[in-house]
Amino acid sequence: MRGRQPAPPPAVGGARVEVVGLTAGYGRTTVLESVRLTVEPGGWLAVIGPNGSGKSTLLRSMLGFHPHEGLVRVDGVPTTGMARKDRARCLAYAPQTPVLPEGVTTGDYVTLGRTPHRPLLAAPRAVDRQIVADVMDRLGLGPMAERPLTTLSGGEQQRAVLARALAQQPRVLFLDEPTAALDLGHAQQVLDLVDRLRRQDDLTVVSTLHDLTLAGQYADRLALLSGGRVVAEGAPDEVLTAAALSTHYGARAQVVQGPSGPAVLPVR
Amino acid sequence: MTTTAPGARTAAGALPTRRRPGLVFAGAGLALVLAMLAGVWVGALPLPPGAVVVTLLDRLLAPLGISVPGGLEGTHEAVLMELRLPRVLVAVLVGAGLAISGAAYQGVFRNPLADPYLLGAASGAGLGATLVIAYSPVQAVGPIGVVPLAAFAGALLGVGAALLLGTAAGGWHSATLLLAGIAVAAFLSAAQTLVQQQNTDELRQIYGWLLGQLGSSQWSDIVLVLPYLGVACVVLLASGRALDVLAVGDDEASSLGVHPGRLRLVVILAASLATAAAVAVSGLIGFVGLVVPHIVRKLTGGANTRVLPLSLLVGGAFLVLADLVARVVLAPAELPIGVVTAFVGAPFFAGLLWIGARSR
Question: What is the domain partition of chain B in residue ranges?
Fold first, then answer.
């Protein structure tokens, strides 16, 4: 059954992700139309756009969870032909509202990230435990390994979800609204962490972010979705303009240049 | 989180038995053996415990050519070998099958209220059994009674109908399947009631079956159940790790390389096979499949790799003890075992919840 699939890209560093002509919807309603995107290896693309513009659907389609037309290529290899397991070895995903199972320790939860790297029936090997321990230490979760996941704080849980995704040793990390449930300080901590991991491991990051200022500060490229299409794509200060915010968000805002990227200031 | 009971827990919120799953398994195994021994010792005709053990050892070692002298003889031996032992073994198999199926259903639907009867297995079996009790001209096909056969087929047909309806209505999502199961179960229950009301002469027999009974258990029941239960248990035990992955959600399981729909289908089919086999020989025994997995999770945490095998042991022990109570309380009359599992199980479960809430 594995014979027909193209070999997965070798697992070193971040991969280039290309989306060509991606069209997706729910029933007869089209949500995304001919979306075209490219993310360079080791880059961070933030998908922004007003509510209902299809940000999450785009992410879920790129990961193959949502039926769609068009192509998604990882280092030139179309993901549609890949075995699910091979895809799981290069693409990791942290959802907006992760399901946190009851009665499971944080260590066991993070270990789930090793699933695509061994047969489904097999117990975690020593190398899996080592990778999990390393990831948890890097994310400051070492002392929480034996604690039930549901007893951690919101910020710690978000880090545990990240740790699980990183234990997959992916080449591309997909984050759906990683800061949605966090206050400003914790949101910055998580994004700082993602940025550090991205630079250390040369990871490619694709995230949705509804907070435009955070998107402008952290991502190196933005794609603005509106009405199911990418209406602007480029460096943050090219995409985040007062005119674009007015046209696509119906918002009154000034865009201020901060030290590390544009910041959006809503005005009355 | 604060700990009120001094010394009860080492670290705040740590799962108490995390480091000694072996001990929990040994304890559950011992409980099962003790429950089975109690099951064969106690009854209307009390059997001498020592001689019972000797007889059982003698039978176990006979294939090796070893004979152990000093066992039971005559009526005592017949009571042990033809009445008590098959009954206890059927109780173990049925309890184990319902409990592991319940754990699997709860895992696959990520719903703590799920039980093996959720998708129409119970109502399908009920309709099948009622139909043959009311209309079948024969009592048995070969050595196998028509009621177990009809119940087995009815349970599988019920679940099959729910799965077909669910997939036709929107794929392998748990909510769609649940609603399809509820619709099928309601329809089959209504049909069962209709047949039952048209045949009031057989009402007593039908009710007796619906409430569950192990009184007529024979060795042939064990032969009937064991292959299906065996296959189902192997599949379910092997699915533990995959179910742990599914516990984090369909999308995330997908992102980890697991096919949620396919896994759900395999686990539901295996669990339904085990349930159908159990229901065929025992009728509808409620509560075991719902409660035993929760008891097990209190003991060992939520990891399915431990919950599934432990549910087998605890479910077996639980049903043997429930059957013991059913035989003893109103002796020489018997209570339907489904009444006992609920009557004993519900307060026990409530107590467990209460203790769990207090120690938090």
Answer: 87-358
